[in-house]
């Protein structure tokens, strides 16, 4: 069976490396980007099983990247990795009230919890 593909976007290299290792050890194929613009440029519709976005990034924040990704592929599953729950309320107020609170993963996240949450979101 083919591995599920995860796109991970965060501007912190240490977090990228750690999460990539954890997700790969969890059986996923992981593509990482340290820049939201690079992630958008390299985005492939119907390719990733899940996209994990940091919210606070330079150039384009995770919310704007989410909007642009959804313009290219409405069915792409996306979740957010954030250090603050207040971003969920901001996201809801900006027209995304139907996005489930479970799609916001809180930093720092334990390795086992990350794998568990990703599997829940993907539906494996």
Written description of the protein model:
It is a single chain. With 124 residues, the protein is of the alpha/beta class. It has a single domain (5-122), classed as Rossmann fold (3-Layer(aba) Sandwich). The chain has helices at 13-25, 36-41, 62-72, 86-93, 111-122; strands spanning 5-9, 29-33, 50-54, 78-82, 104-106. The protein is globular and about 30 Å long.
Topology diagram in text:
Elements: E1 5-9, H1 13-25, E2 29-33, H2 36-41, E3 50-54, H3 62-72, E4 78-82, H4 86-93, E5 104-106, H5 111-122
Parallel strand pairs: 1-2, 1-3, 3-4, 4-5
Compose a concise summary of this entry:
With 124 residues, the protein is an alpha/beta fold.
Keywords:
single chain; 124 residues; alpha/beta; Rossmann fold; five-stranded parallel beta sheet; 5 helices; 5 strands; 19% strand; globular
Unreliable stretches: none
Helix segment count? 5
Oligomeric status of the shown chains?
Answer: single chain
Global mean pLDDT = 87
Structural class: alpha/beta
Listing every helix as H and every strand as E from the N terminus to the C terminus, the arrangement reads EHEHEHEHEH
Shape: globular
């Amino acid at each position: 069976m083919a591995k599920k593909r995860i796109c991970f976007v965060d501007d912190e290299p240490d977090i990228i490396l750690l999460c990539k290792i954890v997700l790969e050890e969890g059986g996923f194929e992981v593509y990482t980007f340290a820049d939201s613009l690079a992630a958008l440029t390299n985005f492939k519709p119907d390719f990733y099983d899940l996209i994990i976005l940091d919210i606070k990034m330079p150039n384009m924040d995770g919310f704007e990247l989410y909007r642009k990704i959804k313009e290219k592929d409405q069915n792409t599953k996306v979740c957010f990795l954030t250090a603050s729950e207040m971003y969920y309320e901001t996201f809801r107020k900006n027209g995304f009230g139907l996005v489930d609170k479970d799609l916001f993963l809180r930093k720092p996240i334990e390795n086992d919890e990350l794998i568990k949450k990703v599997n829940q979101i993907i539906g494996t």
